[in-house]
């Protein structure tokens, strides 16, 4: 059995998120979003690179500072490990539902993800790597979860990728560069093309903020 989400009304979540964003925003020099066009009357999967404690903060920032500005969101959901949800009971009220990789209940979690995405305006925050990795890796490996969710979807869903890269340069505070990519919809879904396009985009995102460095051989962008 999975633990299903019981989210509070979205205005309550947005208000709480605004307080957290204000708190964490003060710890950054700049936060810059390279935007995309958001398709109307769709649900949304926001996929992000998974590299640290503040990943959720960056996802919420993109969701509410950019996506919600173009198309009003109705519900926000995210997959969380079941053991984390058992320790943190309040997560389900923030839109989290449980997943146990390798367990029989995994199909129930994937079906539930597809179910919430059947409603236009709902958004699923998703980290396809499955594990924490450096923001500077040059090859993002995808687990099969995103394939399993998208192929279960009914209705129209826009897939979005966001690469977040942090740099300090001349400041004592890091700057966050959030580079978005429109990955199309579930109606033209190609898993291999998705992985290829996202990896090319992630490399380009790193290249955009490298000022002077040129790498030779296999490490060139």
Task: Write a structural description.
A seven-stranded mixed beta sheet has the order 1-7-6-2-5-3-4, sandwiched between helices. By secondary structure, the protein is an alpha/beta fold. It starts with 9 loop residues before the first helix and ends in a 12-residue tail after the last helix. The protein has helices spanning 10-25, 55-70, 82-87, 106-116, 145-150, 191-209, and strands at residues 31-34, 43-48, 75-81, 96-99, 122-126, 157-167, 175-185. The chain has one domain. The mean pLDDT is 91. A hairpin with a 7-residue loop joins strand 6 and strand 7 (175-185). Helix content is 33%, strand content 22%.
Highlighted features:
alpha/beta; seven-stranded mixed beta sheet; 221 residues
Brief summary:
It is built from six helices and seven strands; from the N terminus they run αββαβαβαβαββα.
**What gross morphology would you assign?**
globular
The level of helicity is 25-40%
Q: In total, how many beta strands?
A: 7
Overall residue-averaged pLDDT value? 91
What Rg do the Cα atoms give?
Answer: 17 Å
Distance between the termini: 44 Å
Strand order of the largest sheet: 1-7-6-2-5-3-4
Outline the fold blueprint.
Blueprint: H1 10-25, E1 31-34, E2 43-48, H2 55-70, E3 75-81, H3 82-87, E4 96-99, H4 106-116, E5 122-126, H5 145-150, E6 157-167, E7 175-185, H6 191-209
Parallel strand pairs: 1-7, 2-5, 2-6, 3-4, 3-5
Antiparallel strand pairs: 6-7
Helix pairs in contact: 1-2
């Amino acid at each position: 059995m999975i633990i299903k989400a019981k989210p509070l009304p979205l205005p309550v979540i947005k208000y709480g998120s605004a307080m957290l964003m204000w708190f964490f925003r003060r710890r950054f020099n700049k936060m810059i979003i390279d935007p995309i066009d958001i398709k109307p009357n769709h649900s949304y999967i926001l996929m992000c690179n998974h590299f640290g404690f503040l990943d959720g903060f960056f996802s919420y920032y993109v969701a509410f500072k950019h996506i919600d500005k173009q198309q009003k969101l109705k519900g926000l959901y995210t997959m969380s490990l079941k053991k984390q949800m058992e320790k943190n009971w309040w997560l389900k009220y923030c839109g989290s539902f449980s997943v146990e990789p390798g367990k029989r209940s995994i199909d129930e979690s994937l079906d539930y993800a597809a179910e919430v995405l059947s409603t236009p305006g709902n958004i699923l925050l998703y980290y396809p790597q499955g594990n924490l990795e450096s923001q500077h890796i040059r090859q993002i490996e995808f687990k099969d979860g995103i394939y399993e969710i998208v192929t279960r979807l009914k209705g129209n869903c826009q897939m979005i990728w966001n690469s977040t890269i942090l740099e300090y340069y001349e400041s004592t505070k890091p700057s966050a560069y959030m580079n978005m990519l429109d990955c199309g919809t579930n109606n033209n879904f190609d898993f291999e093309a998705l992985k290829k396009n996202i990896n090319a985009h992630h490399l380009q995102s790193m290249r955009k903020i490298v000022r002077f460095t040129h790498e030779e051989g296999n490490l060139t962008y």
